[in-house]
Design a protein that fits this description.
single chain, mainly beta, Pnp Oxidase, Chain A, 7-stranded antiparallel sheet, 3 helices, 12 strands
Amino acid sequence: MQRANPASFREAASRFATGVAVLTALDEHGRVCGMTANSFVTVSLSPPTVLVSIMLGRMHRAISATGRYCVNVLPDHGRDLSRHFASQPHTGASPDYDIVDGLPRLRGCIAWFGCEVTQHVDVGDHTLIIAEVSTCDHRDTTPLVFFSSRYHRGAGVPVER
């Protein structure tokens, strides 16, 4: 089978607009760790199920050790937090957390999902971590959007039905 050129694949995939989410968890020592998620997908409504895709590292170890994580969807002014958790620490980012149901939730996120891991699937250099949502909440505000490898504010103008 022929495979796409990785650089071409990355460019083409960047044309899919996504919201920006930060995964948070407590590691095996009870310390908060986090990462900007490259992939977050809702999978099922019954039961409520989500999937994240992550590489090996501190976050992978924390989720594997505890079997739990939180997905925090960032508001339109959350660019500095996203960069901070994408290993680009920013002086303007000072993450504040509330511990909700034993998970670190970022203050000011527009939606969050408390997740209990049900399955790990290794694919290439990433692991798909599938989890049932045990708790969630949201508020109505504008999301941070990532498109064409850049951050954008807002979700645009709704298309009429």
